[in-house]
Structure of Probable serine threonine- kinase gdt4:
Amino acid sequence: MEGKSVGERCSKANTPGIFVSSLSQANAFQAECSLADRASGLPLADVRLIQKQESMRVVDEHIRNNEMYGKHKQSIKAIRRKRLRRNKKKKESLKFTKQARKEKRSRVNQTIEELQIKLQRLTDERIQGQVSHEQPDHWRNKLYDQEKAKKSTIYRAPKNLNRNNLKSLNCTAADAFLGKGTFGTCTKMLYRDLEVAVKSYQENVTRNCVQWEASIINLFDHPGLPLLFGYCLEVKPFLMVMQFHGIDGNSTTLQQVSKSGMLLDIVEWHRIFYEVADILLCVHKKSFLHNDIKADNILITKRNKCIHPILIDFGKCRRVSQAKWYKLDKKQQEKYFKNHWHLAPELILGTHCQSFASDVFSLGIMLSTIYKALQLKCKVLKTIYRNSVSPNPASRILVKDILRQLKHD
């Protein structure tokens, strides 16, 4: 048996009536061949060779009869060449896609680098444009002019008033004096027989700054915001004329009310805090930040036998897109933490710019100060101010949530 040739073995294995598939060895053929080989004692290698030859013969026969590959006669080599061409096209298309992605990624990286260079240049120019801290008497006013000049867009131009229509009251200067700020003083006067609050700006304040602040106030329409009559810009000092708000002819702030004990009812304090939050929400809906919320900047006026808050002093107001970054050294940070404790800590430390969250922090500081000073007993107010003064700006409560909690209390 071992001396027989391969042809003799094949002739014995090729028994009639065996079906072989067109592309691989048929199960029936393999089974019968294996039985025949076992009976004849053929080695396994010869059996596989016989199976391969028989499979190739059957495939060639099917190709000739056009049973597998259609009308066009193709050989195995032609099919392989076609498959190679198809794979080559796929590789070329994949290579082109990778190249396109690489080029797009390089363009994006180049754009990012250009924007970073531009941002660094603008930052350097801003730092160089600031006044050195060696001149403490003038750097605030100069920075004020520089920053306001950048924001000199007039959103809603107020009316230009005639200065001659402003008359002094028949009272002493002390009684007419309402308050003093960083950039001017406020006095009580008469404008066409109406009591008004006139803000007189310092000599170093520019015309654009006055126009910008007046246009911001004129942009809002809310009962908790001052009503602007107009401004006087013909000669210095520049003037801005607003409606007078007070109680019995006297200008009263929320800070003075909290210290005097005028309001002892928790319900009234609850309503005042709700109205203050509603005013702040009105400002935020216009995409503006107040940036100076404190009890001294909230006036108290009496309407319909009830007192209502009025938010004033929009000198530091900014658009959200123009939020300010503070760049302070350690000494200045200590000074700000001591004198401007109502500002959010991330502003003083320079980790974040001005935002809605920084306004909420200032509101929470004001609430907590009044809450502790008057020893109010209200769980809702306590929860609100605790959630408002969180060190993390992202975890602070939203203004609309403050309103919702105060409304349902």
The two ends are 104 Å apart (CA to CA).
